[in-house]
Amino acid sequence: MPHSHSDEAAAGDERLKAALWYSLGKTVDSIAIDSNINAAPAFIGALTEMVAAKIAQASTDMEAFAKHAGRSTVHTKDVILLARHNEALQEILQDKAETVRKRDKSTAR
Q1: What domain count does the chain have?
Q2: Signal sequence span per UniProt (predicted)?
């Protein structure tokens, strides 16, 4: 029986969430060891759900920014716009974008 597109998308989402859980778990464990505390698996699971929801919302927002600008592709400026409420993050993203632009300009010659 062939799999539907939505089944494949759901399986992909689950694989991404599993990778996120693994990565967050490693980070939390490292911090917990350094801080001499223990992080319960339920905490890592809840953190994973929260981060996954935030990622989903961020992607929806960036897609909306691109669509509003008449584009079908998310650009760097959409990512920077997403960070507009966090000045420190916005500055880091702008600096990184400028570094990449300069590098791309120098390698295009």
Answers
A1: 1
A2: none
